[in-house]
């Protein structure tokens, strides 16, 4: 491999495409070259921002709404920007894909059959999967010989036992794919790598990692392998999130149906109008809620902290104990206030947070005498995608 080789990583959601370019050294080390984001897809305020590895702005400009009406259009804009700024084509493109379904247990090279299979999982991740696949399809049409790799949020959880993989429903439904897939796996894989390198004392240990961002889940990791997750069949289950409710009595969905709501209305409600946003009536941004004096904001924060705390320690049942808890993602990495609020529910377990360490965002935020170590790790899903992409194209 020559020193000019690069890899592109794409993480596409409904309102933004994030992209990252990595250089590959002769020793196959990856180093970031640039990172960009086209946000506001489908709105009047689409913007393209690109920064180099030092954080210097390379581009920051408004994109005409007609050029970013959907994710496909937005990918065309990103592709045009990249081809104008790169000397050659990247070696390969790695994509974040939320759902790998029951069959795909590891990253795969993309071909037409894989795209078709991934499209068939759309109902399992209706708001994520089509957006994840759109850039892949655009690149395949424009540059059919450029290798592309799909990396799945579900793959890290395929080490679950038969019990962890099930709901208490008839076996026939399990065979049809009604399983507890789990998500945020690329983030957990990164956290597992960091724990192994940076916290060798925890090697082989019982770790609960909590990805607390817009989406929220927690994962029980035994010796770096996922044994259980709070998310299951879809990214709706488990802990409360920015706009999704997490745990919910299925009877509530029946109640909404009885009131005449359609499938699409219920889907929209569950993915966009619940969680912190629904509870507070203010919004889903943790910073805004933490700054607010409104009683409803306080209620939303109290609910969030309680249920997240409960979900994290509940995962101890999967491992018969917990040696360490690791916070990650937007809220987990940056909100000392929410971490402290969550940890207050763990005092009965002998968990103690050191205020100064917590304010400094760790890495260790618990006191020396805390019965369980509590840490903060900055996640890096893109690096995991780049590593998998490099591994797969090198093996070809
Ligand atoms: P995603 O990548 O899924 O969009 P993130 O991991 O970026 O989500 O997390 C977004 C959440 O993190 C938002 O609720 C945001 O308010 C919160 N967040 C980001 N920075 C801070 C901060 N400094 N303090 C509190 N919350 C923060």
From TrEMBL:
Coiled coil: none annotated. InterPro entries: Ac/propionate_kinase, Aliphatic_acid_kin_short-chain, Aliphatic_acid_kinase_CS, ATPase_NBD. GO terms for biological process: acetate metabolic process; acetyl-CoA biosynthetic process. Mg(2+) binds at residues 11, 381. Gene3D superfamilies: 3.30.420.40. Substrate binds at residue 96. Pathway: Metabolic intermediate biosynthesis; acetyl-CoA biosynthesis; acetyl-CoA from acetate: step 1/2. ATP binds at residues 18, 211-215, 285-287, 330-334. Mg(2+). Can also accept Mn(2+). It is found in: Cytoplasm. The record marks 184, 244 as: Transition state stabilizer. The active site is at 153 (proton donor/acceptor). Keywords: ATP-binding, Cytoplasm, Kinase, Magnesium, Metal-binding, Nucleotide-binding, Transferase. Its EC number is 2.7.2.1. The keyword Cell inner membrane does not apply. PROSITE patterns: ACETATE_KINASE_1, ACETATE_KINASE_2. It holds the Pfam family Acetate_kinase. It is an enzyme of class 2 (transferase). One of its GO terms (cellular component) is cytosol. Transmembrane segments: none annotated. Signal peptide: none annotated. Its cofactor is Mg(2+); Mn(2+). Belongs to the acetokinase family. NCBIfam families: ackA. This is Acetate kinase. It comes from Bordetella genomosp. 12.
């Amino acid at each position: 491999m020559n020193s000019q080789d690069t890899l592109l990583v794409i993480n596409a959601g409904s309102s933004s495409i994030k992209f990252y370019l990595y250089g590959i050294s002769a020793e196959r080390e990856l180093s970031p070259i640039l990172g960009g984001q086209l946000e506001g897809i489908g709105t009047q305020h689409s913007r393209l921002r690109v920064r180099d590895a030092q954080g210097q702005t390379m581009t920051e400009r408004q994109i005409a709404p007609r050029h970013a009406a959907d994710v496909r259009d937005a990918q065309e804009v990103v592709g045009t920007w990249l081809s104008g700024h790169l000397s050659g084509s990247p070696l390969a493109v790695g994509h974040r894909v939320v759902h790998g379904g029951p069959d795909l247990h590891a990253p795969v090279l993309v071909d037409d059959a894989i795209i078709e299979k991934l499209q068939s999982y759309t109902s399992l991740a209706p708001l994520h999967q089509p957006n994840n696949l759109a850039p892949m399809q655009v690149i395949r049409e424009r540059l059919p010989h450029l290798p592309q790799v799909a990396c799945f949020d579900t793959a890290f959880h395929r080490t679950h036992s038969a019990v962890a993989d099930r709901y208490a429903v008839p076996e026939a439904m399990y065979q049809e794919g009604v399983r507890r897939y789990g998500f945020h796996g690329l983030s957990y894989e990164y956290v597992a790598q960091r724990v192994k390198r940076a916290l060798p004392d925890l090697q082989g240990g019982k770790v609960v990692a909590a990805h607390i961002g817009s989406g929220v889940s927690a994962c029980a990791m035994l010796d770096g392998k996922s044994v259980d997750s709070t998310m299951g069949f879809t990214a709706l289950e488990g802990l409360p999130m920015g706009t999704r409710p997490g745990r919910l009595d299925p009877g509530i969905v029946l109640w909404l149906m009885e009131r005449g709501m359609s499938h699409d209305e219920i889907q929209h409600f569950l993915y966009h109008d619940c969680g912190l946003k629904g509870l507070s009536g203010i919004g889903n941004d943790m910073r805004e809620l933490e700054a607010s004096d409104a009683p409803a904001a306080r209620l939303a924060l109290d609910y969030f902290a309680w249920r997240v705390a409960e979900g994290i320690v509940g995962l101890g049942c999967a491992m018969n104990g917990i040696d360490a808890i690791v916070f990650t993602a937007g809220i987990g990495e940056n909100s000392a206030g929410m971490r402290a609020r969550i940890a207050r529910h763990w005092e009965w377990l002998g968990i103690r947070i050191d205020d100064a360490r917590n304010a400094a965002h760790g890495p260790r935020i618990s006191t020396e005498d805390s019965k369980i170590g509590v840490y903060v790790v900055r996640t890096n899903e893109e690096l995991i995608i780049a590593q998998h992409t490099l591994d797969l194209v090198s093996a070809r």
